[in-house]
Amino acid sequence: MPERLGSEKVTEEYPRFIVPGFAPFDPMDLIKRTERIVCSGNQRKYTNFYATGVYGGIATGYTVGCCFRCIFCWVGLGREYLEKHGKFYSPEEAFDQLSQVARKSGTAKLRISGAEPTLGKEHLLGLLSLVEESMFKLFILETNGVYFGIDDNYVKQVSKFKKVHVRVSLKAGTPEDFTRKTGAKPEAFEIPFSAIRNLIKYGARFHVAAMSADPRIMSPAERAALLMKLHGVDPGLVKGLEEEIVDPYETTLLRLEKAGHQLKWPLTQLC
Q1: Is the bond into 266 cis (omega within 30 degrees of 0)?
Q2: Which of 58, 77, 175, 258 could bond to 189 as cystine, CB 3.0-4.6 Å?
Q3: Please, are residues 173 and 139 in contact by the beta-carbon 8 Å criterion?
Q4: 8 A C-beta contact, residue 127 and residue 164
Q5: CA neighbor of 192 nearest in space, from 203, 180, 206
Q6: Is residue 52 part of a domain?
Q7: Mind listing the pLDDT tens digit for each residue in 6-51?
Q8: Does any domain span residue 145?
Q9: Count of domains in the chain?
């Protein structure tokens, strides 16, 4: 399949890494700019299809393009240099690739990873429609919640798919920490919580995750603020929170270094 770029030419003004003194960006604007590069009609850029052991074994489509620049992110440098990575696949082509991987690895679970999967709405909804009609039992949709927070109807459409389980990944417990870790403007801190409210509103299957078990990246005070925020949305979210720690992937270490952070490894004490 030949490489095809979207209509926007990437310039140095396109946010790549968070560095000291960076100017916070609007993630909604970055969604639009990124989609013009990684999406074309109902097609989306993928770099690979493979099976991984997370979730007890799952077939994964690896995409590029995100509206955050999280300093602890593990994905490849396609996040920063998305114009140089990936090939376009239609929903049918992506589903076929995922199906082949799933059959070979003996799993009935699918997902998109490596980027923000809600970018390219037409592509994702087309892919989920194919999953819904298939033999596969589960599609795990991992998201930062921005698109779902600003587009109520998008959540309504996704919630109709009974095989989809959404994992909302929260990045911080306060607006200031949110900007420091993601690069997005502090007023965007509330958007993922709006996504959670929308998921509740439409009865979607979901749970919440956060990098909150790692005191190197989230202080006890910030973690407490996050838990209180979640409790205010729904007390059950706190009980079901999936808490993560930072792993020392090569790309993670690079992003931390670019942002001026030095973490001690290994982590020996959790919150």
Answers
A1: yes
A2: 175
A3: no
A4: no
A5: 206
A6: yes
A7: 445 555 588 999 999 999 999 999 999 999 999 999 999 999 999 9
A8: yes
A9: 1
